[in-house]
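Open question from group meeting: does this chain pack into something compact, or does most of it stay loose? Before anyone orders reagents, we agreed to write out a predicted structure and look at it together. Recording both the input and the output here so the notebook holds the full record.
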Amino acid sequence: MQPQSDFTAPLAFSVLDLAAVAQGNTPADTFRNSLSLAQHVEQLGYTRYWLSEHHNMAGVASSAPPVLMGYIAGGTSTLRVGSGGIMLPNHAPLVVAEQLGTLATLYPGRIDLGLGRAPGTDQRTAQAIRGGRFGAEQDFGRDIKQLQTYFSAANSGAAVRAIPGEGLDVPIYVLGSSTDSAYLAAELGLPYAFASHFAPGQLQSAINIYRRNFQPSAQLAAPYVIACVNVIAADTDDEAHYLATTLQQLMLGVITGERKLMQPPVASMRAFWTPELAQYVGQMLAASFVGSKATLREELGEFVAQTQINELMAVAHIYDHQARLHSYQLLAETLREMNQQPIGELAGVGNG
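Structure tokens returned:
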């Protein structure tokens, strides 16, 4: 069953994993760390663990989300595991239905399908992935509807069927980083996950559009919003800001095109960027929460009160694996404490 929107319900919290490869590590190390993190957050009460799709990036090993999803689901028992997301223009809907149907058959009631429309890479690599389909007209909404058809029991009499997949409950989520996807998610009556961890500028506008235009569907009765944000927590604010320089270096590489493996933290970023580049990085990381539990409680409280999201999905680009595990533990403790108080009180405003 799909989640239902309820602003009075406790805030759900989840994980997005890009399978970032740290300097000195291999993709194999990265995958082992991902499983370790998934097992850790499962014990901490996180709702779901999503894996992204990226290609042709030395520092990102999540090029095959369904494969990683099977690995993570096989090593956990209750955690929902999903794609955050599968970039649908890269794949034929039938193949996606078969792959996710296989996963949902192996791990019933635990598989999510998050779908995006971006290529997840550069244009040359996208061409290599799509082959003869590269120049074809893309219709994201049409492909989502085709996927829904393949998953439906009513498709059993069709000439083309998804086996396994047909008749299975595989929740579909629309991912986006602009307002375009908000209209589509609303039209289809599907949950909406916004990538504010790198594109925060249109978050509030997209949420407003989605809620205003939402059409109830067989899958979802009311709007459901997930906001993905960067969270780096530590025992002190100073330590958290030190750890966050890894994230700042990563985003700097995105802007300059000088992508590297995930770098260790540094005492100061002054030697790495100009004031202009620092400003660009700051804009990309506007939806980032860095600090101790006390700082997170205050800043996340304001964010949740403003956006009225149903679920917070956190990504943590932290170089040291143990520090990453600790960050997710501190976040879980913070959010559990927040869930014990009304949102208005968390934000320091009245409820009237």
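Observations to bring back to the group:
Strands lie at 12-17, 48-51, 80-87, 111-116, 172-176, 192-194, 225-233, 288-291, 311-315.
The two ends are 33 Å apart (CA to CA).
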